[in-house]
Amino acid sequence: MLEVLFQLSQLDEALPNSIVMNFNGAEENVLQASHGFITQHPWAKDIRAFINLEAAGAGGRELVFQTGPENPWLISTYEKSAVYPYGNVFGQEIFQTGIIPSDTDFRIYRDFGKIPGIDIAYISNGYVYHTKWDNPDFIPAGSIQRAGENLFATVKNIAASPYLAHPGDYRHGNMVFFDILGAYMVLYPQRVAMILNVLVLVAVLLGFARKVADKSTEGYHGSLFFKKLLAVTGIIVLSWTVAIIVNALLALFLSVTGHAMSWFTNSYLIGGLYEAPALFSAIAVHHLAKELCFKSESDPWKLESIHFDATMMLWSALLAVLTYHGICSSYVPLTWVIFPLICRDRVVAFLQFAFKEKGQRFFYLYIASLSFPFLITSYLLVGIYQMFVPVMGRVGTEVNPDLVISMVGIISLVIKTNFVSSL
């Protein structure tokens, strides 16, 4: 903050709006300092927007995890200003549910000051957070430089924004926002997301209707299509249920045998401890279901097609629920629906891949259609593990950390493998 203040003082031209730098403590005791400032300080009534800097770790990239309420111009200004953007609306929606045992001054400024803002926090190396090792020695110099470049540009542009005069006039709903590998930030209004989601869901329903009525399309048709679709959907859900049970039992076993949180210092062990057993359990269910329910089916591509349709229906159902409740993180299921849908219903048809002649070309094209959803979801999951694994060390006895991480492992596995299970 001091360096940003110094750089601002060196500008050739004065900014059209003043900037207040509030250095305060008394955060851990119910956020008293920020509350005292925003409710009692004579300058508070003139503040139109704020940037709150937080830390749940030491160094790394600073994450935009809350913005608003509404006032989409704030995140738009950040997107245009930040040299290295890093933010996700998923973090905002998860944090505001209260499941993360933490709070920030953002809530005080928002609720008591009635002003919009941006909440930015370090989340890397959360192991040292609130310990005797929580000191500047663990903060890499590069992360300070990175944060300084992002903050200086963002503060300068917000202070020069014409929206500051009457920010209440620009409360146009929330924004969907997420970055792609820290290189580019995607953002669009929630109302646009609602329209896009509904259009995609309609396209899915029309695709199902076409498969029922048009016998020239691949797979099953008529009433048999619905019977097989429901059967395969049930099998997929059963495979998830078995994987959840296996992981829950494994988590409890590790806890009672003195091996609780064996993944804490080496989070990559989560893959072997929880994701691998869940994967094997799901594969076993699918293999058993094939032997019992589809042994008479001689055409493997019919099975592949109906598995794809069942997976599409489940993702579409999730997309519909999130859209109905106005959840901005619905962009995740949207990508998992729209890219495979375009590939199967349009690209394959355009390239005239015959249903009976599917082979390597189809396989590579299909995998390519999953690459972008897989990329942004895996990128999001890395951030989730980076945040949640250290948090599990300070949740106390209220929850079983192994159960939480085992369920995160299930979610991670389901997302990453769901569409390839049909192959």
Descriptive notes:
The chain is 57% helix and 7% strand. The chain has 423 residues and is mainly alpha-helical.
What keywords describe this structure?
single chain, 13 helices, globular, 57% helix, 423 residues, two-stranded antiparallel ribbon
Q: Which helices and strands, and how do they pair?
A:
Elements: H1 2-9, H2 32-40, E1 50-55, E2 62-68, H3 73-81, H4 89-95, H5 105-113, E3 117-122, H6 141-159, E4 175-180, E5 184-189, H7 190-213, H8 222-256, H9 269-293, H10 300-324, H11 331-350, H12 360-391, H13 401-417
Parallel strand pairs: 1-3
Antiparallel strand pairs: 2-3, 4-5
- Count the DSSP helices: 13
The count of DSSP E runs of length 2 or more, i.e. the number of strands, is 5
Q: Which strand order do you get reading across the main beta sheet?
A: 1-3-2
Rg from Cα: 25 Å
Share of helix, binned: 55-70%
Write down the oligomeric state.
single chain
Low-confidence stretches: none
